[in-house]
Amino acid sequence: MFIAVIFGIFGLIVGSFLNVLIIRWDSKPITGRSACMSCGRTIPWYDLIPIFSWIALRGRCRLCGARISLQYILVEASLGLLFLTIGFAPLPLYARLSALPIIAILFAIAVYDFKNTLIPDAWVYFFATFSLITSLILVTLGETENGAFQILLAGPLAAAPLFAFWFFSNGAWMGFGDVKLALGMGWLLGIMDGLFALFLAFVLGAFVSVPLLFFSSSAWKRISAQITHRNVSQKLPLTYTMKSEIPFGPFLISATLIVWIANMYGLALINLVL
Questions:
Q1: Which of 22, 124, 165, 219 could bridge across to 174 with cysteines, CB 3.0–4.6 Å?
Q2: Residue (of 51, 6, 78, 7) closest to 253 by Cα position
Q3: 181-222 confidence digits (pLDDT tens)
Q4: Count of beta carbons in the 10 Å neighbourhood of residue 260
Q5: Which of 191, 196, 205, 204 is nearest to 273 (CA)?
Q6: Are 79 and 3 in the same domain?
Q7: Which domain holds residue 215?
Q8: Cβ distance 212 to 220 under 8 Å?
Q9: Which tens digit of pLDDT belongs to each residue from 94-151?
Q10: Digit-coded pLDDT (tens) for 7-52
Q11: Are residues 249 and 131 in the same domain?
């Protein structure tokens, strides 16, 4: 219980850092004091406490009263809950600790892709490499039923369907960042679970995307603008069509986390379907 709570608190702190990383990537230096995005003044330390500061300030800057993006509290709370969930998993401590960097980078990729419809190469390469190394270490320790060859093969097999979509559509149906993300998914989950997570990602994508094709997206625009801290008129279309660009990365990552965390608790979701 105590260790799980420590994991959760650490998740809040990491979530706060990820917010900085997501917002400043490719635009501002990662280091340096946090400042209000509206007035530019430095934010005092007591207004940077994860979750609690946002609630205490009622989502507005203490200095100028400008609205603070919902992204901050959502990322911090979500990552805190994910880390807490990992903390309670019935696994050795080293296994739970090794899962934290993967959870963090996946969450950062999901939020960044949601905001920008782009997956940074450095992040997805880190995820894929760390996943492969972690899985091979587990093979060496005898902690997995998969062999080294199966792990190596799992990445390309999971990426192959998305690569086909990307190749034959010339990038219109699928971004290449999603292909690289699926490569890491396979190395993390193995062949069967990797392919199942890919299938689940398409199911989740359909549940979210299909309604957007039939209903007005004005509410979606307002919600997304609140989360991403951008003007409602920017990037988001008034209505969604079959040609609209909806990032697939968040669905791939959601499916990966669902399958992976379920496995940590001994629940093989693939067995419920097959």
A1: 165
A2: 78
A3: 999 999 999 999 999 999 999 999 888 877 766 655 555 555
A4: 20
A5: 196
A6: yes
A7: 118-274
A8: yes
A9: 889 999 999 999 999 999 998 888 899 999 999 999 999 999 988 888 777 778 888 9
A10: 999 999 999 999 888 888 877 667 677 777 778 788 887 888 888 9
A11: yes
Unique residue bearing structure tokens 């782009």: 118
Question: CB atoms < 10 A from the CB of 222, how many?
Answer: 12
Mark whether 14 and 149 lie in a shared domain: no
Residue 37: half-sphere exposure toward Cβ, Cα within 13 Å: 14
Please report the DSSP string for 83-131 in residue order: HHHHHHSSS-HHHHHHHHHHHHHHHHHHHHHHHHS---HHHHHHHHHHH
Identify the pLDDT of residue 206.
Answer: 86
Residue 158 half-sphere exposure toward CB, CA atoms < 13 A: 34
* Bridge partners, residue 42, by sequence: 35
**Which residues make Cβ contacts (< 8 Å) with residue 18, sequence separation at least 6?**
75, 79, 104, 107, 108, 111
For residues 258 and 184, membership in a common domain is answered with yes
Which residue is associated with the tokens 């960044």?
A: 112
User: Is the same domain home to 132 and 232?
Assistant: yes
| Angle, vertex CA 37, rays to CA 34 and CA 43, nearest 5 | 35
Number of domains in the chain: 2
The three state secondary structure string of 169-225 is CCCCCCCHHHHHHHHHHHHHHCHHHHHHHHHHHHHHHHHHHHHHHHCCCHHHHHHHH
Residues 83 and 123 both lie in one domain = no
Q: Is residue 95 part of a domain?
A: no
